[in-house]
Amino acid sequence: MDREIYLDNAATTRAYDEVISYMNDINIKYYGNPSSMHTKGIEAEKLLKLARERIAGSMGAVPGEIYFTSGGTEANNMAIFGYLEANRHSGKHIITTAVEHPSVLEVYKYLSKKGYTVDFINPDSQGIIDLNMLESKITSETALISLLYVNNETGAVQPVQEVVEIKNRLNRNAAIHMDAVQAYGKIRINPGKSGIDLMSVSSHKIHGPKGCGALFVRNGIKLQSILFGGGQENKLRSGTENVPGISGFGLASEITFRNINENSQKLSALKSRFIELLEEKIQDYRVISNENSSPYILNVAFKNLKAEVLLHHLEERGIFVSTGSACSSRRNTSSHVLKAMAVEPCYIDGAIRFSFSSFTSIEDIEYTVSALVDIIPRIRYGGKK
Amino acid sequence: MKKIILVRYGEIILKGLNRPVFEEKLISNIKKSIYTLGKVEVLKSQARIYIEPTQEDYDFDSAIEKLRKIFGIVSVSQVWKIETDFEQIKSYSLELAKEMVRINGNKTFKVETKRGNKRFPMESPEISREVGAYILENIPDLNVDVIKPSFIIYLEVRENSYVYSKILPANGGMPLGSNGKAVLLLSGGIDSPVAGWMIAKRGVEIEAVHFYSYPYTSERAKDKVIELTKILASYCGKVNLHIVPFTEIQLEIREKCPEDQMTIIMRRIMMMIAERIAKKVEALALITGECVGQVASQTIQSLAVTNAVVEMPVFRPLIGMDKNEVIDIARKIGTFETSILPYEDCCTVFVAKHPKTKPQLQKIIESENHLDLEKLVDAAVEQTEVMHIRV
Question: Is the CB of B218 less than 8 angstroms away from the CB of A328?
Fold first, then answer.
């Protein structure tokens, strides 16, 4: 297997070479604890400060609004639990959508058993949430609304501005939490100006290291800490800071935002080409990602086949992708997102997510489609080849 | 006083003239199993085996854990070996009782004595009574409870004497290698590892065969089977795992045979290949995890058709068991958690919506005539990868 075509960038990305050598350097030379009072500590503290400025700068925030976490999941948990705990007076009603990432969905499901009334807003067949339904659900009791900015499975981009406007019209005091893990570094977001109160981002989706993320908390928003200890991160997130990881995250963010427009254009062209090639060469499939979805994600469902079987056949040729549903005869593991979008049964098990990065080339896409042409007829069921 | 391990074995004792052969096998298996933990002397006496470490800091816990997995052993105890002298018996019994009270907070006890050395002047009940009284005098909070004590001080008075408080059960069975070799069809589900374990327990050496359908299944499916084989190897010392590439055969069946016969033909070819491998490794039987009526391929008609393709005896130790009974054993032997990992057959491509539940041998053979069986089986056996799995 000489060729390696990595089309699973929504799962994780390969770190930039610059990031790897920067982190390596930090691991060797600047291993101090930022809380220590000696030079070693101060050096490390400076690195943290630089990273915080870089992340803040990337979203038009001030450094004091950025809290580093162990990743997107922790940022989401911290945003939801931390906000509700610190703002108990603001109501017992919370809203999210049926197409969230599990690190939000599972928290809301848990809270629904702990005395909160929870509404899950449904998406339409394009994966876009129903704004009328949202409007009908917001009350004076609504404390928090969580929304996935860019869907990790389909790339659907939610109408964030409309959501904020509706919320402000019906209940100014409700807070908006944006899970921007798949959007950050791909779409320019200024949470402060957009009326977003809390925003989760992750490092390893933008060619930074794993185990690192951040939560933006708008100035003036109160959060209760959910991890107690030494009082790091302005008492909100205790635990010795992951200095190399956070620094790598900062640098990855800097590099990513430097090329954000250029990458976006390149990948839009690449995704269009992919769709064109599918149209020319493949039968019986459906593009699940809608027209205005993120250029970084293309979800395609092939009729009458098991996505995992296709995945392994692609892998054999050095092409790495994801499926929405794991293949197991024992349990039904179809994607909750595709189910909520009411994708037909003969397609839902055959959904493959191709997700791209600035490293992806047109040749990669052409090679992938020719592999699909070769493989698909051999693995379809319901009749022989 | 010396800390040693006492091993009891059961069924072997019932053997007649062959008994020494089985005992030798068991002792050799014991030595093989624990030799990495350090030097020991292994002694056999009066249907017991004594393991005496000859080095300091011996890892008794690991040794006992390994011993409890050796087939043929009924139970294991860590014991104190002392001289057969009543003062010593009393003082070490007291020390052990103190330890039980200190560590576990136990409140009640009793003493049980076995006197193998008839020259010792006291009889068993008398020893128990005297030692019990001595312990009571010296540990104020402790009481005697002969019905349901929270611990028991066991005394064995022989050439030497032994004091201990725990008898840890093992699995019984016969020493591995005392009953030849068989080939296990290992799928990765719950049943087949249990079936293999049950036959291995009777002293039969196992070689495992797995049919691998990559890229129709995940690489994790293979890792899972390797993991299961490792668990079996923790009982058997070493298991050879034969991984047979099966994709080509499945594609051929799918193309050339009726859809509703796919599963049964597949099963028959698996048996053929397993038998070929068995002959190669000089095994004399096959083992499957089949159970009557569990799925379409395990109706009695299907089993008969599958069975007809091989000459060797096929052992199906689970044949009359319910799923829950199988799961109980899987949990006990430690394969359950691995078996239920979801990376199993993804080959719905190769499964008919309505497979035949009452296949007729003649029709199946007719369908198989569309395949170049000899060539397919030869190629699969040829390309089989063998992994030597040890603990």
Answer: no
Averaged pLDDT, B343-369: 79
Cβ proximity of A205 and A182 under 8 Å: yes
Domain boundary among B141, B169, B197: B169
Which CA distances in Å does B328 have to A24, A120, B174, B190, B336?
Answer: 50, 41, 21, 10, 9
Please answer yes or no on whether A327 and B348 come within 8 Å at the CB atom: yes
Helix (H/G/I), strand (E/B), else coil: A40: helix
Contact B332, B340 (CB under 8 A): no
Domain residue extents for chain A: 5-13+260-381, 17-258
Domain end (from B169, B201, B218): B169
Residue B189 · residue B289 · CB < 8 Å:
yes
Show which residues on chain A lie within 8 Å of chain B, measured between beta carbons: 305-306, 308-309, 312-313, 315-316, 326-331, 333, 378-379, 381, 384-385
Find which of B213, B216, B260 to mutate to test the A interface (most A CBs within 10 Å of its CB). B216
d(CA B211, CA B385): 11
CATH of A5-13+260-381, one of 3.90.1150.10, 3.90.1640.10, 2.60.40.10, 3.40.50.300: 3.90.1150.10
CATH code of the region A17-258:
3.40.640.10
Q: Residue A331: pLDDT above 60? A: no
pLDDT at B83: 96
Contact (Cβ atoms closer than 8 angstroms) between residue B248 and residue B373: no
In a domain, B159, yes or no: yes
Split into its structural domains, chain B has a count of 2
Selecting from A316, A328, A384 the residue whose C-beta is nearest the C-beta of B342 gives A328
Confidence of residue B345 (pLDDT cuts 50, 70, 90): low
Q: How many CB pairs under 8 A join A and B?
A: 45
A385 Cα to chain B: minimum distance (Å): 8
Whether residues B213 and B124 share a domain: the answer is no
Q: How far is A334 from chain B (nearest CA, A)?
A: 14
Instruction: Using an 8 Å CB-CB cutoff, list chain A residues near B214.
Output: 312, 316
CA distance A141 to A154: 32
Does residue B174 lie in a domain region? no
> How far is it, in rounded angstroms, from Cα B52 to Cα B106?
29
Cis status, amide bond into B215, omega within 30 of 0: yes
The answer to whether residue B270 is domain-embedded is: yes
Helical residues (DSSP H) of chain B, grouped into ranges: 19-34, 60-67, 86-104, 124-138, 191-201, 219-236, 247-256, 262-280, 300-307, 323-333, 336-339, 361-368, 373-382
Residues B60 and B196 in one domain: no
- Please answer yes or no on whether B255 and A328 come within 8 Å at the CB atom: no
The average confidence (pLDDT) of chain B is 93
Q: What is the DSSP string of B132-196?
A: HHHHHHH-TT-EE-SSS-SEEEEEEESSEEEEES--EE------TTSS-EEEEE--SSSHHHHHH
| Cβ-defined contact of A312 to B215 (cutoff 8 Å) | yes
Clarify whether residues B61 and B154 are in a common domain. Answer: yes
* Residue B334 within any structural domain of the chain: yes
Q: Which residues of A are catalytic?
A: 327
Distance from CA of A327 to the nearest CA of B (A): 6
- Cross-chain Cβ contact A315/B215 below 8 Å: yes
Range of the domain at B365: 181-390
pLDDT digits (tens, 9 = 90+) for A350-364: 999 999 999 999 999
Do residues B159 and B251 share a domain?
no
- Please spell the DSSP secondary structure of B272-307, one letter per residue: HHHHHHHHHTT--EEE----TTSSGGGSHHHHHHHH
CA A246 centroid distance within chain: 18
- Range with the lowest mean pLDDT among A6-15, A59-68, B257-266? B257-266
- Among B232, B267, B269, B244, smallest CA distance to B352 is for B267
**Residue-level length of chain A:** 385
